[in-house]
Amino acid sequence: MPVSERNTVSERFQEVPSRWKRQHLLGLEGLSAEELTLLLDYAQSFRDEILTAEGTNRKIPLLGGKAIVNLFFENSTRTRTSFSLAGRRLGADVIEFSAGTSSLSKGETIIDTARNIQAMGVDAFVIRHNCPGAPQLVAGALDGCSVLNAGDGTHEHPTQALLDMLTIRQRFGRIEGLTVALVGDIAHSRVARSNIRGLKTLGANVIVCGPSTLVASQWEELGVEVSYSLDAILPRVNVFNLLRIQFERQVVRPFPSIREYAYLYAMNARRLARCRDDVLIIAPGPINRGVEITPDVADGSHSAIIDQVTNGVAVRMAALWLCLSRR
Ligand code: CP
User: Whole domain around residue 13: which residue ranges?
Assistant: First the structure.
C-alpha cells in the first residue's frame, strides 16, 4: 500500500467515536445494537485494511506506548494468540502472564496479582478464567485500567461471539432476520450465552439445539427457540454454529456415548445435503472431528472455521482499540 494511502487509513482510526464510552468489555449483555455494530464495523476495517496488507503495513501504531497483559488461567490457542497479535499489530507491548509460574502458587489473590502488575504501568488486562465473573471482579478492583473478558467459565466469551457475528455478516451482509442455530453443549457454553445476547440484539432468530440433558427448556426465557432434533431444523437454518462438548466442565456424562451423540447431532455430509444451498457452518474451536462435525464438513466449502480465526484478530484489534482509546 502506498504511504499516502496508509496515512489516510491511520488517520481514520486516530479518533475513537464519541458513541463508544466503555472502558471494559466484560460481556455482550447490555451492549446496544449501535455498540455491537460499531465493534463489527471497526473489526471489518482492520480486517480489510491491516490484516490483508503485507509486511510492515500490517501494523498500525494506534496503541503505541500502551502495555497489555494476557492473564490466562485456562488453556487457549485461538483467543490468547489472537489477542497477542492484535495488541502487537496496534503497536502495544504485550506481556504473557503464566499463572502456573507466578506467585499465585504462593497464595497471592487474583486481585493482588492484578494490582501489582498494574503498578508496573499496565493499561489493560485480557483475562480468561474458569470461574464465572473473574474478569468483572478484577475490573471492579482496578482504577484506570481496561479489562477484556477472554472467556470466564460458563458465563461469557464476548470476542468469540463478535467474531462469529462478523463472519456471518461477511457472508450474508446482515445479521437481522437470519436464523442461527447453536448446536451442542449449550448448558456449559459461554460462547452460546454471548452469541444469544449479540445475535438477539442485532435481530437474528436463534435456535438452541442439543440433547435435553444439555439444553434445558428454560433457555426459551432468553427469547430463543429450543429444539432437541437437529434433523428437524436443517432446512430452515442459515447458520449452524457447532459447539464442542465440554467434557471438562461436566460432572456426569450427559449422554450414553460419543457415538450416540454424533449419530444424533453431528453435522455430516448427509445432513448438509438437507440444508439450504447457502448454509454457513461455523464453530468456535477447538473442534472435535467426528463428534460435533465430520472432517469433510469442517474442511468443506460451506465452512468458515478458519476464516473465523482471522476475524478473531480483527475483532480483538477493534475491542482493544475502542476500550483503550475511549474518550
Ligand atoms: N474459541 C476459543 O476460545 O478457542 P481457544 O480456547 O483456543 O482460545
Answer: 3-156+309-326
CATH number for 63: 3.40.50.1370
**pLDDT at res. 184:** 96
Give yes or no: residues 149 and 237 share one domain: no
Query: Are residues 187 and 281 both part of a single domain?
Result: yes
Residues 212 and 69 in one domain: no
pLDDT of residue 281: 98
Cα–Cα distance between 34 and 259 in angstroms, integer? 43
Q: Does any ligand 1 atom lie closer than 6 A to the CB of residue 312? A: no
Tens of pLDDT, residue by residue over 185-204, are 999 999 999 999 999 999 99
| Residue with CA at minimum distance from ligand 1 atom 5 | 76
- pLDDT, residue 60, reads 92
Whether residues 77 and 212 share a domain: the answer is no
Q: Do residues 133 and 204 both lie within one domain?
A: no
Q: Does any ligand 1 atom lie closer than 6 A to the CB of residue 241?
A: no
Distance of CA 4 from the midpoint of ligand 1 (Å)? 37
pLDDT of residue 246: 79
- Answer left, alpha or beta for residue 231, where phi above 0 means left and psi between -120 and 50 means alpha: alpha
149 and 221 share a domain? no
User: Rounded distance, CA 272 to CA 302, Å?
Assistant: 9
State how many domains the chain has.
2
Ligand 1 contact, 309 CB (< 6 A): no
Q: Which atom of ligand 1 is the closest one to the Cα of 81?
A: 8
Residue 3's pLDDT is what?
A: 42
Residue from 71, 74, 77, 306 to probe ligand 1 pocket by mutation (most atoms less than 8 Å from CB) = 77
Q: Could you tell me if 9 and 145 lie in one domain?
A: yes
Q: Ligand 1 center to residue 169 CA distance, Å?
A: 21
CA distance 227 to 6: 49
Coil, helix or strand at residue 173: coil
DSSP 43-61: HHHHIIIIITS-GGGG---
Under-50 pLDDT residues of the chain = 1-4, 6
118 touches ligand 1 (CB under 6 Å): no
